[in-house]
Every structure is written in C-alpha cells, then in structure tokens.
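Self-study notes.
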Amino acid sequence: MKRLNQYRILWILVFFDLPTDTKKDRKEHARFRKEIMQNGFTMFQFSIYIRHCNSRENAEVHLKRVKRLLPEKGKVGILTITDKQFGEIELFSGMEITKHPNTPQQLELF
C-alpha cells in the first residue's frame, strides 16, 4: 500500500460559468451546483468548488461523476492538483491574508 503524502493526495477544483438568463437556465445551474455538492465538493468561491481526494483512484471516481453531471450550456473547467500545490495558495480577503480551507484529517493504519 502506498503511503499518503502531499504528492499523492489530490484536490479537484471545478470552475463553472453557467447561464442564468431563463428559468430553465437557473434550474440547470442549481441542479449542477447541488449535485456536485452532494458528491463532496464545497464552495471555495462563487462558481469554484473543491474536493479533497486521498488518491488518484479516488479522484478519478469523482472526475467521472462531475463529467456525467455537465450541463448542456455554459463553461465548466476541472483542474486536479496535488495537496502540495494546493498548500502553496495564498488567500486574501481584501488586503488581509486568510486561512486555508480545512483539510480532512488522515488516518493511517500500520
């Protein structure tokens, strides 16, 4: 078994810009947002959702799920980065630096 480390643990980022012009568009936007949240994604910023994955295999499962949920209209981007890369992010609220989102705790059994 491979040990969990900051290069094996991944983050999936889903960026989207969906139309909200019509009632049908708004319903589709809400559906997509709701369903990715049901799959463990949390809002990072408006229209940017993130999910922590313990392995490449786990990330692949969630990537496939998001791809099955894609709406007919609008733009969606999906980016996978390592925990090490995500840890390098600098977050600000105005001019003040802010904390990183909580990383799920890992349990290792020997």
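Second protein, same conventions, sequence then structure:
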Amino acid sequence: MHIVVLSGSPRKGANTDTMVEAFAETAREGGNTVEVVRVASKKIAGCLGCQYCFAHGGVCVQKDDMANVIESLKDADMVVFASPIYWFDITAQEKAAIDRLYAFGATGFPFTKTALCSIATARASMMRRSLCTSQPARTASGRTRALSPSAV
C-alpha cells in the first residue's frame, strides 16, 4: 500500500510530527510505503475558485508547489491528513492544500477507492477545553503510537 501523509504543522518536531513519525514507522513495519509531504513548508496558495482547472484538464492556474503534491497523491492507496488544531480547526496551510484538491474535480476525484484518514493534535491545555479526553497510546520509549493502516 502506498500511503501519502499531508502534514500541515508549521512547527517542525512538534506533536504532529511525532504522531506522523509514529504512524509512518508503524505503516512501514507493516510493509507499506509512506511518503510524508510537509505542506506547511511549501508555497501553496489558496484556491481561487476560478475553475481554470476544469477548462485545462485539472491543471491549476496558480504555479506553486501544489502541482507536486497532486502528483504525489495520484497513486496513493491511503491519504492521511495530519494537522495540529489551531483555534478549533486545522492549520491554514493544511486547509489551503485541501482546498486546492478542487482541481481533481476536473479529471475525476482519484480517491474513490482510497482510504482517507486524519491525525489531529492539540496541546494539553487545548484538550481540556475540547471533546478529546482520551490519552494517545505510547510506545515503550514513551513516543506516541499511531494506529496501523491495517487497522483501518
């Protein structure tokens, strides 16, 4: 299985990266290939809603890093959206990448047989105010452990 993780955390080495690394490690142990795409460190503008992509075979009018992200996603068997929760939502960087998937509408959304998953992280102070009350599983080394893709 080819898994692509779109990580929207602008903070390298923070909670989302820890969860993504644990997920990727578990997935690789299960014989899967994992590609982590840090969308937060790429130049991805928000969707203009201009529908240029519909008239041009799914190619966006904006020339930025999203074209490479879309190429990575075309052959994915599973797409994982990973983001910290900022002000009760995913990061703006992750949202911009998700909105730009609109271009797939021109050629047919390739995720009809693709598993879609999400990883969301929040600081402990934020979790006390949210509905998330369960503690993440930890490995023997104390690292947070993610679900194996085979459990999906």
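Instructor comment on the second fold: The first strand starts at residue 2 and ends at 7.
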